[in-house]
Specification:
InterPro entries: Kinase-like_dom_sf. The chain is elongated. The protein is of the alpha+beta class and 726 residues long. Helices cover 42% and strands 14% of the residues. Helix 4 crosses helix 10 and helix 15 packs antiparallel against helix 17. The structure holds zinc ion. Zinc ion binds next to loops.
């Protein structure tokens, strides 16, 4: 890898060979290595140096004492190259959140580090070097009593756990089953407490940990300088990985061993002199590698740094890989293009006329040149895309055209959407979502969020309709299509857009409309009755969607509305389906207050996840104290504490016993694969609703036989139910 590997040091060995007879020189180094066994002595010898470095750092206002071993651009390219590679982790890192007995945690951690090194090296080997040849390396742990390497599993079985002090990735060599130091590609040190030196904390790693890293690096370098192995890409650079059960970083030590004195009478003095004067030490930031479930986040910067170090270490032993990082990274743009086409396809899929694919193909092969419009018109319309109350927007769906007049501008927390009425039927109201015009350059996050809100939601709602899900508690697709812009549309007959800035802007219209729970809470109109009904209606929506394998994934007060105009019996509807999970690869939205524990930990939903989010919604809506959450860790910790103290159940118990019982039930299911028994809970909630309603409301359907259909002519909302609750 360019820039990463130093020139071979074999030449320099040759050039200085004359200074001492080879045998004598080798003997001296061997003896030195045998006696160089105490990392604490080395650290003590380096204390002044560490202190002077941090003084220099302060006086020169450098950000870090040591340089970073890798450039961010290198890591980024490496990240692209790794996109198609899967790393197979078999052992989970034990979570510090759920400690059992400390011995078993430590043992599991050692096994997990070995597994991590193995999975990293194997994934890299197969992707860059060879699919067919077996990987010539393996991971083993060092037992400090005899400086031998063992598989951690065997060492632990023999009661050697307490003496394990490092893990190494090393060349397989059947003649040396307990490992040789010159066979080591890289060393990993499992040192709890790294999490307190994360990347943004400015805190440098303590001398003890750095000293130990330098000690192990130096031992490997000395052993290599005595080795008979050939190092095609040079051997004077060693990577030491620092890991704890969540975080990790890389220490890189590089230098010419021939510049070391090897003074047998002052072993630690000559070692520290070499480090001070002849070595280049670089230290990476400490970043997260494992999530709370103990799975490595392979794409995160913490794991990337460690993988990149491992990659460089393999290069030293195995030479230039068959496929370069550039080769593999080149596929990134192909994947990116495929992803974009997929998105485009998603968008076109949602067109009910079903010729999405056809049009996509046409679009891709027809780079037709369209007439350039007058620039002055262009600027004017671009500015006027902001919709105001009263403005009318025309929508083209298949061959229909329909106008909608904006009644109100609404906010889902991030983005605007609209309450609008069809021009030809002003008695009706719908929600209208407007996507970003393809021509407009929005900040990426706005673009992405708009895509979720409009195109993705259109796809989800159409999918529900195709699968025959119908429930009045779900929002329904009324129509979807593209905007009809003012002036003549010059788009080519084969599809695509003309150069009017609005051309191709996607629009989605859904029903029903209502006030969001967020608004009800802020105006104090979400009381006991509402909480129980909300729980029933949302659970019913969750159940209907789950029956066809769809999960909502973004339940929060902005995504639940209360429908109370034109209906006999007000009810709640779950809206905002853009982040719904249709298949395994879909990711739910991340929300520190409302996401389920599993979603925060895994980025996925389990079967109880939506119900768990619903419980948080009810808890916060019923006056549960809202914690100040600013990180996923903090959010998980809050959940852990709140559930274990039964804080959520208690709060909901103040509202109603059935909600308390429901929270208990959800708590028992969280994170398990067991399905929710929707029927039982819908029945119980319904019973509580009837108790609440009893005597307060006369069901008009009893008298006039009206069904629960939405009507816009009569508002039959019962006046008996107090909505204004402080
Ligand atoms: Zn156009």
């Amino acid at each position: 890898m360019e820039g990463g590997s130093p020139p071979p040091d074999l030449e320099s060995v040759g050039s200085r060979r004359s200074s001492l007879p080879l045998s004598g020189r080798t003997r001296k180094r061997k003896e030195f290595l045998q006696r160089f066994v105490d990392s604490e002595f080395l650290t003590a010898n380096l204390e002044d140096w560490f202190a002077s470095l941090s003084l220099t750092e302060k006086s020169t206002r450098r950000k870090r004492v040591f340089d970073e071993p890798f450039e961010l651009v290198e890591l980024q390219k490496f990240d692209y190259a790794l996109e198609g590679i899967s790393f197979q982790q078999l052992m989970r890192m034990p979570s510090p959140l759920y400690p059992s007995s400390s011995d078993s945690v430590e043992a599991t951690a050692f096994l997990a580090v070995e597994d991590f090194l193995h999975a990293s090296a194997k994934g890299l080997w197969e992707a860059f070097w060879s699919q067919n040849e077996p990987m010539p390396f393996s991971a083993a742990s060092l037992y400090n009593e005899n400086s031998k390497f063992y598989q951690a599993e065997k060492a632990i079985a023999k009661g050697k756990l307490g003496g394990l002090c490092a893990t190494a990735l090393m060349m397989n060599n059947p003649r040396h089953p307990h490992g040789k130091w010159d066979h080591i590609l890289e060393v990993a040190l499992l040192r709890p407490g790294l999490s307190s030196y994360p990347v943004d904390s400015d805190r440098e790693l303590p001398p003890l940990i750095l000293g130990e890293s330098l000690f192990f690096a130096l031992r490997v370098l000395i052993a290599r300088s005595l080795s008979r192995l050939s190092f095609p890409q040079g051997s004077n650079c060693v990577y030491v990985l620092l890991l704890d059960s969540q975080y990790g970083g890389v220490v890189k030590v590089e230098g010419d061993m021939n510049r070391m004195e090897f003074d047998i009478n002052d072993i630690y003095g000559s070692a520290s002199d070499w480090i001070k004067n002849h070595a280049q030490v670089s230290v990476s930031s400490v970043d997260r590698i494992w999530n709370k479930l103990g799975n490595a986040n392979w794409g995160d910067i913490g794991a990337l740094q460690v993988l990149f170090a491992t990659f460089q270490a393999i290069v030293q032993f195995a030479g230039t890989p068959k496929l370069s990082i550039e080769d593999l990274a080149a596929d990134h743009s192909i994947r990116l293009r495929a992803r974009r086409m997929e998105r485009q396809l998603d968008m076109d899929d949602s067109q009910p006329n079903g010729d999405g694919l056809f049009r996509l193909q046409n679009r891709a092969v027809s780079p037709e040149i369209v007439e350039v419009q007058d620039d002055s018109i262009r600027v004017e319309v671009e500015e006027s895309l902001k919709l105001e109350v009263g403005s009318v927007l025309w929508l083209e769906e298949s061959n229909w055209q329909k106008g909608y007049q904006i009644n109100a501008i609404l906010n889902d927390g991030d983005l605007l959407y609209y309450d609008a009425s069809p021009v030809d039927d002003p008695g009706k109201s719908f929600f209208l979502y407007v996507g970003s015009p393809p021509s407009q350059l929005e900040p990426a996050w706005v673009n992405m969020n708009l895509w979720y809100q409009v195109q993705r939601q259109t796809k989800v709602l159409s999918s529900m309709r195709q699968k025959g899900v119908s429930s009045k508690y779900l929002s329904a697709l009324v129509s979807s299509g593209r905007i009809i812009h003012p002036g003549q549309c010059q788009r080519p007959s084969s599809g695509g857009n003309c150069n009017h800035p609005w051309c191709g802007t996607p629009i989605l219209v859904t029903s029903p409309v209502g006030e969001t729970v967020a608004d009800m809470i802020s105006s104090g109109r979400f009381g006991v009755d509402e909480a129980i009904r909300c729980c029933h209606d949302c659970l019913s929506a969750i159940s209907a969607a789950a029956s066809v394998g769809i999960r909502h994934g973004d339940i929060r007060p902005e995504n639940v509305i209360f429908v109370n105009t034109g209906v006999r019996q007000p009810y709640f509807v779950l809206i905002g389906w853009g982040h719904a999970v249709l298949e395994e690869r879909d990711r739910p939205a991340m929300n520190l207050h409302f996401s389920s524990t599993y979603a925060l930990q895994e980025g996925k939903l389990c079967s109880a996840s939506d119900a768990e989010s619903l419980v948080y919604l009810l808890y916060f809506s019923s006056g549960g104290t809202s914690p100040n959450l600013d990180s996923v860790e903090g959010a998980l910790e809050w959940r852990e504490n709140a559930w274990s103290r039964r804080q959520i159940q208690q709060k909901l118990g103040d509202v109603s016993t059935v909600l308390k019982a429901f929270a208990d039930y959800v708590d028992s299911l969280c994170g398990t694969p067991y399905p929710i028994d929707y029927e039982i809970w819908l029945r119980r909630l319904k019973r509580s609703m009837h108790v609440e309603d009893h005597g307060k409301e006369i069901d008009p359907s009893v008298h006039d036989g009206r069904t629960d259909r939405q009507t816009f002519t009569a508002d039959l909302k019962s006046p008996g139910r107090g909505k204004l609750r402080p």
